[in-house]
Design brief:
Layout lengths: L1 E5 L6 H4 L8 E4 L16 H6 L1 H12 L3 H12 L4 H19 L4 E3 L10 H4 L4 E3 L3 E5 L2 E6 L2 E2 L8 E2 L1 H11 L4 E4 L6 H4 E2 L4 E2 L4 H10 L3 E4 L9 E4 L2 E5 L3 H4 L3 E4 L1
Parallel strand pairs: 1-2, 2-3, 3-4, 6-9, 7-8, 9-12, 12-14
Antiparallel strand pairs: 1-15, 5-6, 10-11, 13-14
Helix pairs in contact: 3-4, 7-9
Organism: Streptomyces niphimycinicus
Protein name: Metallophosphoesterase family protein
InterPro entries: Calcineurin-like_PHP, UPF0046_metallophosphoest
Length: 253
Amino acid sequence: MRVHVVSDVHGNSEDLEKAGAGADALICLGDLVLFLDYADHARGIFPDLFGVENADRLVELRTARRFEEARVFGDRLWAGIDRHAAIESAVRRQYAELFAAFPTPTYATYGNVDMPSLWPEYAQSGTTVLDGERAEIGGLVFGFVGGGLRTPMRTPYEVDDATYAAKIAALGEVDVLCTHIPPEVPDLCYDTVARRFERGSTALLEAIHTVRPKYALFGHVHQPLVRRMRIGATECVNVGHFASSGTPWALEW
């Protein structure tokens, strides 16, 4: 059995169409939407609306962790624009293209920049969406938890710690834990290019210690200090920034 795993697709529909080649199934750990590409400030919803110079400034403020200034700067740009309608329209265009690229079968959960309310409109019959739920694939039990935790970035699908912990607990015993964010381990949470720690989950780390799955798979941190480490019986793997690599991570058994 061979499964390909991707995360942080961020608009890369061209490579997504090929991501399932040679595999029995594809798993997607979220972040389909491209709001702003930190490597190429000309790509994404934000520069499409406000131009590259404003995207440069927003990235500069966020990278410097000047989140309140970034929020005020963004609010000035959005003044007089129906933010929700503009973003939803752009996300819908991206989702139509990205969901059409998923092979059959695909098992997917949300990333922190995704809009879960729209997924039922675009997920086709070959795509199973799971969040706080399990699926059996090739005789192994996979547990899925999507989204991220609250941050100053205020991305669309962030939940409080208790809600996230409840979703982790609902999975019970699984062979493979599939989440968008990593467990709360500094080496797994630090982004070497953004030069900051992303939020990881202590509830996920506790589940790794108690449930002892074979694997814990995640994304979210685009350039992690450490991509892979063993915690007890569990191999923890950042499956990679698919938007830039275009290459899925493979799990075989």
